[in-house]
Amino acid sequence: MAQVPQTFFDALAVRTWCGLALESLGRAREEIDAINVYPVADGDTGTNLYLTVESAAAAVEAVFTAYDVGKPTLADAVRAMAHGALIGARGNSGTILAQLLRGMAQVLAAERETAHTDGTGLRLALRTAADSARQAVAHPVEGTVLTVASAAAEAAGAATGDDCGAIARAAFDGARAALAATPGQLAALERAGVVDAGGRGLVAVLGALVETFTGEAAPVVAGAAARVRAGTEDDPAGAEDCADDPGEGGPAFEVIYLLEAEDAAVARLRDRLDALGDSLVVVGGDGLWNVHVHVDDAGAAVEAGVEAGRPYRIRITHFGAGDAHSTGERTPRERVQRAVVAVVPGEGLAGLYGEAGATTVLARPGEPPASGELVQAVRRAHAREVVLLPNDADLRHTAAAAAEQARAEGIRVALIPTRSAVQGIAALAVHEPERRFDEDVVSMTSAAGATRHAEVAVAEHRSWTSAGICQAGDVLGLIDGDVAVIGADVTAVAETVLDRMLAAGGELVTLVLGDDAPETIAGHLETRVRETYLAVDTVMYRGGRQGALLLIGVE
What we know:
555 residues; alpha+beta; 6-stranded mixed sheet; 4-stranded antiparallel sheet; 19 helices; 18 strands; 19% strand
């Protein structure tokens, strides 16, 4: 769709840029993944960049949605973009991109009441972005995305005039030229005959910036994927772009987490993590940081974060023998015929689903997964056929978008619109991968649809509900997504909800307890079912930090 060019850099331009950058990275993702040869062979730089920008774009959209009248300021939009990228940053490349966007935001949001900026402001923003990203990396190496970012800033600085389109075009051209030179700066790239993957992604993002201001698509980078070292499309011998050079071999784990901490504590954390491993990048500020490091002792890296502040959204990836740091060729893993991919609200359910053979995506309270995460999970399942269980009514559109993208990649995907994790449990219980795909999907859909679902949670604020007005701190009982009971006691509300559900009949009650649920509630409800409802069985699971105190399913 043709874009209306933006003369100045304002909030609308930020929104347009994010959308175009996401589209550009979506088109280039597989190519970028395939040329990902430095320094860890996990071939996901394009995916990581896409997920990072997807989070940034979602944050900007949320700001625009919040304005019923008028539109957000430039400061509002760029701060949202930077924050979204920070909390959604994936991998080393995504973390560095998040810092680049944060550096730009520091300049563009300096005057909160400014409606827009011109080429002078954009020029300064690009310079600050490149400098701040380089400072965030413990040991910068040339021939990486940092080199490309610096070249873009230098080219923008040398451009004349105050036109944003001209400045963006100069930055793009400078980045493109620097990208073409990266094989001569980094031996790993030269051996593979490819350019730097992270730099290629940044060129795509800057090309979107050119299109934002001119309405014209920037030219595709020529020769970006000259060849893939000892790999195929299904098994690219690639590696996550990184600005540190760990040499041959390398640590076994990638550790990433968000961290709430003071600046002084983060300075000490950098020193400690630098001693533990390599590929260290710490970005952020104002009390919130994104930490990325490769280490052999993942526990020590997390403990260092605990000492510095409060780490959360912790992701630990084991690169694996013959995979991430292997210098030899790999044998492509055979695709399985069928797999189940499920979104789960807590660690306990992730373990339960995993034991049943499902590939899981963890959705923490207030942090729903993006479509890119679901697509990545479908790819990770490495199957020809995939059954997707969103387990949340609010994820219906996200899951549908993920399913469409996976289908475009040749994977047969069936989306079962499960609205709760207990419906997903019911579907998984009847899953038979040896059956015909359509028959399996019908059986799983029928089991999910026959399962009524409820949850018991605590109200966060005063609001109108279908059961009346609730106050912050009230205990809510929701049946099939609607508030049915408001009370003060968790066990009493849970019992009332269970009675209402079983009044319509049932054979099996599933209870999933959150970490904050009373210790006695499971025994009380099991006794209630046993003594009051004949021939009804009860099964109980621990859900972990799942948001709701209790999930209930009745089949």
